[in-house]
Every structure is written in C-alpha cells, then in structure tokens.
Amino acid sequence: MSTQPIHPHAEPDRVPRNAEGIAAALEGWRRMEFYRELLAAALEDAEGVLRRWWCEAMLDTDPSGGRFTEAALNGTLPTKSVAEAIARRQAAGLPVE
After folding, report:
1. To the nearest 10°, the Cα dihedral for 41, 34, 16, 61?
2. Its domain of life (predicted)?
3. End-to-end CA distance of the chain
C-alpha cells in the first residue's frame, strides 16, 4: 500500500526547495535577510530557516498574490469565522485539534 496526496501537484514548485532557489525568488533586502538567517542558524535550525523562507518565496512569486493583497487592503477579501472553518473540517472528517 502506498499513500498518495488528495490533490496531486501536476506542476513543479515555482520555487525550488533549496537555498539557491529560495534566494533567486526573493528580492533586495529580503534575499539578504534570508542569507543572514541561514548563515547564522545552527545546523539543527537550518532546515527550519529554509522551510520558512521557502514559504515566503512561494508567496512572493504567487501569480494571484497581488489580487489577494488588493482585496485584503480594500476590505473585499472573503473571510470566514473560526467556527465556520471548524464546522467545515468536521463535515469533511478532518481533525480540528
């Protein structure tokens, strides 16, 4: 038996999951801050730094990111309450802890 993701990703990540890919996706001061944190990290913390900055790089390169930012700033971004999110997870049989 093997496990498969519920929603398989047909295309590769926009940002490679390595320091070079992350740095290439970041610009200016953010790239320098990434390198600063990575170089200062203890060996056991380096993976966490890479993971956090990979998420930042993915958000920075999201083609629809500008649209979401604009909607949030305009107050038109759809939202839901925590109670609604919990109810939706429970209905789907997902954990809510």
Report:
1. 150
2. Bacteria
3. 27
- Split at pLDDT 50, 70, 90, the class of 31 is very high
In the Cβ-directed half-sphere of 52, how many Cα atoms lie within 13 Å?
A: 13
Q: How far apart are CA 32 and CA 42, in angstroms?
A: 18
pTM for this prediction: 0.62
Task: Average the pLDDT over 73-93 and give the result.
Answer: 91
Q: Are 71 and 77 in contact (CB under 8 A)?
A: yes
Q: What is the rounded CA–CA span in Å between residue 44 and residue 80?
A: 37
Enter the tokens of residue 51.
């993971």
Q: Minimal CA–CA distance to 37: which of 17, 19, 55, 14?
A: 19
Radius of gyration of the chain (CA): 18
Only one residue has tokens 């759809």, namely 78
